[in-house]
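REQUEST ID: PR-0412
SUBMITTED BY: lab tech R.K.
PRIORITY: routine
TASK: structure prediction, single protein chain
INPUT:
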Amino acid sequence: MECYLDNASTTRVLPEVCDLVRQIMCEDYGNPSSLHMKGVEAERYIRQAEERICRTLKCEAKNIIFTSGGTESNNLALTGSVMANRRRGRHIVTTCFEHPSVHQPLLYLEDYGFEVSYLPVDPEGHISCETLREALREDTILVSVMLVNNEVGAVLDVPALAETVREYNDQILFHVDAIQAYGKLRLQPRRMGVDLMSVSGHKIHGPKGTGFLYIGDRVKLHACMHGGGQQRGRRSGTENVPGIAGLGLAAEKMCAELDAHRDHFFHLKKHFLERIPEVEGAVVNACKTDSLDGTAPHIISVGFAGVRSEVLLHALEEDEIYVSSGSACSSHHPGISGTLKAIGVPDALLDSTLRFSFSIFTEQEEIDFTIDCLKRLVPMLARYQRG
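STATUS: complete
OUTPUT:
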């Protein structure tokens, strides 16, 4: 039995999305900037994708910029907004367990004289409004937080955090990395108090290399790509029409049945948490086994005492079980997870943790098969490593 439990890294593309992408690549392949009918057809696909996404967020087309994915969306949100507002201040607030596509741009901005405050999180991966309030300053121009942590599934109370920022200074912009949240949680940026929101297509059964950035009406954004003036001059370059269309359809499909999908995810998560104590030395991170409040429905992080995560990952792979040892975007630069350190995971488990993540295609039988394999493999590998 093949068990793909690495859906926080990427998801299988929906069949109807594949069909649409192929049709555009092979038949309706015009350049959306062209004035002839092929170009008009291509432009129509982009407008349709905008409409589909806007319905999910209760926003307008002017609020959406299509990008090449979550990394570009985060980079554009951070560098674009900071550069456009640098005369108001040079201070940024974020958390200590952000994704590399947020952390690295902030390091880049520090090299250019901006100051970044990194907020601590509690053992469940949450930050308090008081902690955020204490970090804000007169020269703060941006707050950036991850709605759902990609490694442990902690969900931040974004509306409360955004309100804290507004009460302090309503000129401060609030950015949310919603890459692991979109399509799993119901999101309305305006109602949540969010100015900028990043989304990736391949996390919601859409094509890789696609994403978008929600930009609130009041946001000034410094363009990071210049050229033909596409996307209202905010991101030049010929649009990826097949990818954009596929992203729009995937967004519509995932959000239309969001409640049913969430119920499915939570059912799988509860079943996994009920069975994981059967595995010797297993410790669940940032999630109480008796309550799923404040956690994402599709992500579970588990430490396995005495077994290195990479060894266990490849042992599971032999049984066609595919999981992750952390953020897929960090796999080419392996090391101890900053997220696990931030939530206080014991040193003995820092290099012994795996992430299991579900999709709409995941079945309970896969969970049972995985637990049974873990029950067999973990004690054996632990004895081998002790020896």
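NOTES: The first helix runs from residue 15 to 26.
REVIEWED BY: pending
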